[in-house]
Structures are given as structure tokens and as C-alpha cells.
Amino acid sequence: MNKNCCNVFVCLVAVLTLPTAWAIQLDTSYGDAGYVQTNIASYNGENQFTRNVLIQADGKIVIAGNNEVWPDERTKETDLALIRYNTDGTRDVSFGAAGQVSTYTGGSEMMEGMVQQADGKIVVAFYSGVDIQLLRYNTNGTIDSTFGTNGQVTTDSGGNDLPLSVISQSDGKLVVSGSVDHNFSLTRFSANGALDTGFGVDGFAIIDTGSISAAYSVVQQADGKLVAAGNNHIARFHADGSLDTSFGVNGVNTMTSPMTNAADLAIQDNGQFVVVGSSAGQDISVTRFNSDGSLDSDFGTLGVVTTDVGISPYFTA
Fold first, then answer.
1. Which of 201, 106, 102 has its CA nearest to residue 154?
2. Full set of structural domains in the chain with CATH
3. CA distance 227 to 218
4. Backbone angles phi, psi at 189, to 5 degrees
5. What pTM value is reported for the model?
6. What is the pLDDT of residues 152-207, one digit of tens each?
7. Which of 6, 18, 109, 298 is the most buried (most CB within 10 A)?
8. How far apart are CA 16 and CA 105, in angstroms?
9. pLDDT tens track for 121-152
10. Which among 171, 263, 167, 245 has a CA at the least distance from the CA of 207?
């Protein structure tokens, strides 16, 4: 066990994007010449990992991830960790303790998703064991005891559950994307953490794509439908959790090479979907779909753009 390894949890980099030339340069007015680096090592802290970033409605930035802690020589804990920054990159000392929060719920937690609700509260999705876990924080970083049981929700589908992202719908309900027994899945909760049993089957929408798969990202359309992407699949669901068979082939489009690992998804103003991930080798792959789930042949080469970045890309949505 190396107690002297790097304890850097997060490095924020601010950029200025120039759409006309697609050029990017550092915003040197942010933090220290465009960078913010924070060490959140606590007693016997070891490794720290950034997993998510959230820009709040007020412009403040929240970083979420994990902090590995060894309370003693034989015990390792993996805590959930959040840090909030002001818009200029300084730590927001009104959040938690000097701008940071570390939460241990009793297991080896792995942070996977984060969303801000309309009232400013922050919900994080994580896994510990085989269940979906949600935790909600008040705007000042304290745990919101009105959410679930003492601030935490644990949901078991009866299988091996893996939450990978969380969004807040326009009506305030929470949707968690991920997998159940290696099958593409969505799970919906009320704004206060109660399982929405009217969604899918008893709160779960699970589809067998014919291969090991997971929904790494989900977005909501203006009409309430949900679109999720992961691995080499993109699927659309009605607001009640049933598959929208007008999308792709019976609700699912299976992406062929070069996309092999879809990691994130965004919806454009015109209703098209952009999926980013990795392809075989060392390429970043971006694929665009029309609103009906078909590939947009006007984008890149038959709907796909790949870029060799020289290393194996890793995405966390």
C-alpha cells in the first residue's frame, strides 16, 4: 500500500471556445492562469478520482468523485466527495467544510452521476454492492434528511444493478440510467426519492439488446420521451417507460463499427442526437442520429467522425 501516491483529486481547466474557428484557449482569468487544482486528502487519504462536473444555475461549479481513505492499516473506505467552486475558481466556503463534502455510507462507494434539482439541491447516484444508490445534499452541502431514508435511497431491482448517470426530468422526477444484470436499463424516482412504480415494470425499464450493455447516459426530449445510449446502442422510451418502436428498429439502434463504447449523449435544438465514445484502438468517435434514430449521413462519414488521439480514450459522463 503506497501512502505517498498522488492525492490530487481534481484539476479544473477553464477554456474559451471560439465557434467560428473551433479554436480553444485557456481562460487565464480563471483560477491560477486558467487552472484550479485541489487536494482533498484527509487523514491517511490515498487516491482521489474526479467522476462528474456540474455547472449550477448560479454559475458555481461542483465536482464529484471519490476519496479513498485508510482509517487504519487493514481497512479501506471509499467516500463520496464533492467540492464547490465560485465562478472565478475559488472554493465556495459556504458549501460543506471549506468548500468540500466527504460522505461515507458504509461501503465502497463509486460516484457515477450528479444532477441539480430545480430547488438547488444536488442528487448523486452511486453504487455500493449490487443496488442503485441515491444521496441528496442541501444547497449548503449538508445531507438532506427529507430525501429517502436520512438522505439516502437504496433500490434493488432483484438483480445486479449498476447506476451510471442521473437526470432530473422537467416534472422533477429523477431518472437513473445504467444496467440490470448487464441489460440496458432506466429507473425512475419521484423528486423525493420514492420509486415511481408507474414507470416501466414496477419502476424499471429494462431491455435485452442481445449483448452485454448498459445505458451510460440519458436525456429527455421536449415531448417527455427518454433517449439513452451506451456501449453500441441508442434507444428511446415513452414517458411511461415502454420502448418507442418508431425509433430505430423497434425502439433501438445498434451502432456498427467504429463506435464500440458510447459514453455520453446530447440532444441538439433540432432534435438530433449526438453520441460520443470510443472506437477500436485509440480513437474518439462521435456519431449523430436523426430524431427517428437513423444515422445522419450528412454528418462526417455516414454519420460518424473518428479522431485518433494517440492514447486509449477514457470517458466519464
1. 106
2. 39-155 (no CATH), 165-317 (2.120.10.30)
3. 6
4. -130, 160
5. 0.86
6. 999 999 899 999 999 999 999 999 999 999 999 999 999 999 999 999 999 999 99
7. 109
8. 38
9. 999 999 877 889 999 999 999 999 999 999 99
10. 245
